[in-house]
Amino acid sequence: MNRCTKAIIYKDNLEYNIKQILKVLAPGTKLCIAVKADSYGHNALLTSQIAEKLGVDYLAIATVDEGIELRKGGIKANLLLLSLAIPQEFNEIFEYEITPLVFGKEYINLISDAANKYFKKDETFNVQLAVDTGMGRIGCYPEEAGEEALIIEQSDHLVLSGMCTHFAVSDSLNKKNQEFTQEQYTAFRNAVNFVKDKGIDPGICSCAASAAILNNPDMHFNMVRSGIITYGYYPDEITKDYLKSIKKDFDIKPVLAFETQVVAIRHFPKGKSISYGRTYVCKEDTDIAVLPVGYADGLLRRFSPGLEVTINGKNYPVCGRICMDQCMVDIGKNNPDVKLWDKVLIFGPKESGALNDAEALAKLGNTISYEVLTSLTKRVERVIQ
Ligand SMILES: *Cc1c(COP(=O)(O)O)cnc(C)c1O
């Protein structure tokens, strides 16, 4: 593939970030890296291989198919499935040793019945019990945890290998939200104790994602689940500056650079309009660089007006509407700094030459870095560097 619109994955930055995360964990605390959604657009197999090399022994996925792809790629780490598998997928999670989240008597019985058909006597299969402590998504209520763990343990093949919950507002510094996180944590601890009260080992318990990894070190439990910080972005209000202000300096680097090239330079007289809707009219004679990247690549339409891209160390505005496969940039008349075929950085780490990161685009598009990263589509080739 020779297409110039591509995503460069800075492998060293990924390794750097994982090492930074490992540094803030107490000895014995396990790290689970979220590689769901193709590692937030960064290539799940590559990320998983690097994580394994660094001794990470849990990877989190969102679909059974994501897990199968990793197993076929040779990944041996524990795979934790964060969304629910449907009954049609049960045989696949057994075959590929994907650890599902389970909760609810009926669901646990369904998976147990399927396991009875699939496994031979004495074979076991790990599941984790999901507890809903305030996210309002999947999981049993904390007070049901003991009873549900008992159903798991009394089944012929299922083994409780851990318990999980997920925080709803741990990325916010608002006092009420911080209190809510504390309440969720307490509820989770209670749930774990209800399981222990039944004489059952709760296994590896986790509740902290990126925000709580950085801001709530007292909530790390036996394992943390790291997503966005692995890829070099801070979760919402838990910014680098905030962490510095509370003396918990934490440095990470963006991993992905989104780049393209100038494929044409057009000369326009004052008054000509650019792109669909004719929203941009040249205020004076100018030159327009055409880029072969558009919203079908993940360059969201709502980024313009406002988006600037970097060419040879300087930012230039995208002008007019972003099209499906192309967009235009006003580079000014007779600009000696921009030539045909020059590389253009849309966002990326500093060393890529980009002046923007995905966080800057997120602010422009009224979203979060997570969405900017996962919006990059399949036709944007991921190139490892
Ligand atoms: C995606 C996800 C994570 C990782 O979240 P980040 O904020 O990216 O660190 C952790 N746990 C669960 C259940 C998730 O869905």
Bound compounds, please? pyridoxal-5'-phosphate
Q: Helix/strand/pairing class, anyone?
A: alpha/beta
- Round the mean pLDDT to the nearest integer and report it: 97
Q: What does the radius of gyration come to?
A: 24 Å
Tell me the strand order in the biggest sheet. Answer: 8-7-6-5-4-3-2-9
Q: How many strand elements?
A: 19
% residues in beta strands: 15-25%
Question: Could you describe the largest sheet, including whether it forms a barrel?
Answer: 8 strands, parallel
How far from one another are the termini?
Answer: 16 Å
What oligomerization state is this entry in? Answer: single chain
Number of separate helices: 12
Tell me the overall shape.
Answer: elongated
Poorly predicted ranges? none
Helix content: 25-40%
What do these coordinates show?
- This protein has 385 residues and is an alpha/beta fold.
- Helices cover 30% and strands 22% of the residues.
- The protein has helices spanning 11-23, 36-41, 44-53, 64-72, 90-95, 105-118, 145-154, 175-197, 210-215, 240-245, 358-364, 369-374, and strands spanning 6-9, 30-34, 58-61, 78-81, 98-102, 125-130, 158-164, 204-206, 223-226, 256-261, 264-268, 273-274, 280-281, 286-291, 308-311, 314-317, 327-330, 343-347, 381-384.
- Helix 7 packs across helix 8.
- The mean pLDDT is 97.
